[in-house]
């Protein structure tokens, strides 16, 4: 029996609603296979913060090191600053475990109408740099409360960091159309972005079968809504990749479907799988959150753990459910979170 130990961090808000549903769906997906998932649920998040003054215990990273993957719902609560939730949990996990790739596939489904006119077919993979760039702790505030108050925030781009994210994106592109778009802003950000462009071009020049197009982020945002079909794989810095992936996910119809994998490709540390969406306090507690983003993230986790066949079967099952219109209100349906999970489980069993 192939046993994988999974750290489960349901987190906050709708994370607490979509996580149990996704866990049940994954259990159904592995039925009949020689695989066992051993869940290690941790109560970390904003409730834990209110009791302990921190999002997770000091030995959390050590606790998770011994597990094979991390399955995360969402963190964030209106009463706790996003700086605490993000820098107290998500960012330390990504950095301590060197999860330098944030992989975000986005595609349209025939049952889900795009927010864009003409309902274009979208099938894009965004490869976002996940541990450096614009999201840095270097900087500070000065002269607070005076008219001279100032804030400084330093971006950090390293050759090593740009090379490795580009190499990963090149491999993704080689497995698809071979077309790679690099998101840049070298006309306005004149130190880091020209460096990004140079290193990306060097790495692509050493690779076979990949055609590189460097596009300014503003123009790329416009292109992503005007002609998303013209884009296949995007490599982007931490900030640009974050914004673009929400943009493209929104264009598909709902952010509630989109998954994301925080990968340590060398497998020296556990990788983390989560939906793109946050804790959605506006709908939390109503049982109507779309669980597909969490379920799809679970499929990516199974693929990473070496179970391509199970992952593909699960993707086919939730695709069928989406195409039949068995969906939550964000997609125009009337099913609850639990009902969508049950529909996916029923579909998995029907296909067995
Ligand atoms: P959000 O993604 O939580 O919500 C944005 C909008 O999309 C809301 O109207 C929400 O109702 C809707 N939505 C999101 N997921 C949905 C789902 N599964 N089904 C149906 N509708 C869904 O982003 P927002 O409101 O900017 O952030 C809320 C909190 O989440 C903040 O504290 C933020 O920092 C945090 N956050 C956490 C993330 C994470 O844990 N990785 C990522 C993004 C935000
Ligand atoms: Mg985001």
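^ Assign residues to that structure.
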């Amino acid at each position: 029996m192939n046993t994988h130990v999974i750290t489960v961090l349901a987190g906050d808000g709708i994370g607490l609603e979509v996580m149990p549903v996704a866990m049940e769906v994954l259990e159904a997906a592995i039925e009949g296979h020689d695989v066992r998932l051993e869940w290690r649920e941790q109560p970390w998040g904003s409730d834990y913060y209110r009791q302990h003054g921190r999002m997770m215990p000091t030995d959390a990273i050590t606790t998770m090191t011994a597990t094979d993957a991390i399955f995360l719902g969402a963190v964030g609560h209106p009463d706790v600053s996003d700086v605490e939730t993000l820098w107290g949990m998500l960012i330390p996990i990504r950095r301590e475990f060197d999860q330098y790739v944030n992989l975000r596939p986005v595609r349209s489904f025939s049952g889900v109408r795009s927010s864009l006119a003409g309902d274009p077919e979208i099938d894009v993979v965004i490869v976002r740099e996940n541990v450096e760039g614009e999201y840095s702790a270097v900087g500070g505030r000065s002269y607070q409360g005076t008219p001279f108050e100032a804030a400084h925030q330093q971006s950090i781009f390293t050759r090593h960091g740009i090379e490795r994210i580009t190499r990963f994106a090149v491999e993704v592109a080689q497995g698809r159309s071979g077309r790679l778009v690099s998101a840049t802003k070298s006309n306005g950000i004149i130190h880091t972005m020209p460096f990004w462009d140079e290193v990306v071009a060097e790495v692509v020049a050493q690779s076979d079968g990949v055609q590189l197009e460097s596009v300014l982020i503003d123009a790329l945002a416009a292109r992503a809504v005007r002609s998303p079909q013209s884009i296949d794989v995007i490599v982007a810095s931490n900030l640009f990749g974050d914004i673009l992936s929400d943009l493209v996910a929104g264009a598909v119809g709902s952010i509630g479907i989109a998954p994301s994998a925080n990968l340590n490709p060398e497998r020296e540390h556990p990788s983390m799988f989560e939906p793109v969406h946050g804790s959605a306090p506006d709908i939390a507690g109503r049982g109507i959150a779309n669980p597909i983003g969490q379920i799809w993230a679970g499929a990516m986790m199974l693929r990473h753990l070496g179970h391509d066949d199970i992952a593909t079967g699960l993707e086919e099952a939730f695709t069928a459910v989406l195409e039949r219109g068995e969906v939550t209100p964000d997609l125009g349906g009337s099913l609850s979170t639990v009902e969508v999970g049950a529909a996916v489980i029923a579909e998995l069993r029907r296909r067995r």
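Residues 14, 74-76, 82, 90, 255-256, 274, 277-283, 289-290, 293, 328, 330 surround NAI (ligand 1) (CB under 6 Å).
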